[in-house]
Amino acid sequence: MTPEIASALIGGAAGLATGVVGSLIAPWSNWGVEQRRLRRETRVLRISEWRQGIADLRAAEPTHGVIQNQEIRSQWSISSPIDVRPTPPEVHQFVQDDDLVNPYTKTWFRTLERELKRTPLQEIATLYAEPLPARRGKVPDRLEREVNRIERDKWKLV
Fold first, then answer.
1. In the chain, what are the domain boundaries?
2. What is the Cα 54 distance to its own chain's centre?
3. Do residues 150 and 115 touch, judged by C-beta distance below 8 A?
4. Which ranges in 2-158 belong to alpha helices (H)?
5. Backbone angles phi, psi at 131, to 5 degrees
6. Could you report the per-residue pLDDT of 20-60, keeping only the tens digit for each?
């Protein structure tokens, strides 16, 4: 075999091998990029779902008349006589259904619970064990801090 034929065969084999390897690696690397993109999209959706759930949880907690009393105070004036001033309405200090303020009954909390560390879970359980007036706003605040931590530190989305 002449050296020219040998070099042509070696070059052809090398080109064929490079083509085979390239055709296997290119789709695999594209698949990896696509998987990372899908994972990021899913995580962004989860974060938004958790934030909406926390907002709903916060809205379900009774305000104990804070907003209503401020609205009534804005109607009063110093110059109006005492008998003309409006009387504050009754303030309901209870929740119609305990499930409205219970994060453990929410589907979004089940997905969040898997991402939480043990310490925040124990803190949330301790806070939830307190009576509602004593813990008002504390559970959503703690959950919000944990969602921010997951987004920033664990998943590095920010």
1. 3-77+94-154
2. 8
3. yes
4. 3-60, 66-75, 107-115, 118-129, 132-135, 138-149
5. -65, 150
6. 777 777 777 788 889 999 999 999 999 999 999 999 999 98
Predicted model pTM: 0.67
Q: Taking each helix axis from N to C terminus, what angle separates 3-60 and 107-115, rounded to the nearest 10 degrees?
A: 120
Helix (H, G, I), strand (E, B) or coil at 139: helix
- The rounded distance, in Å, linking the Cα atoms of 119 and 138 is 15
Cβ-based neighbours of 69, under 8 Å, separated by 6 or more? 88, 91
What pLDDT digit, counting tens, does each position of 111-158 carry? 999 999 999 999 999 998 888 888 889 999 999 999 999 999 999 998
Q: Decide if 111 contacts 51 (C-beta within 8 A).
A: no
C-alpha distance from residue 133 to each of 72, 109, 140, 147 (Å): 22, 22, 14, 24
Q: How far apart are CA 96 and CA 100, in angstroms?
A: 8
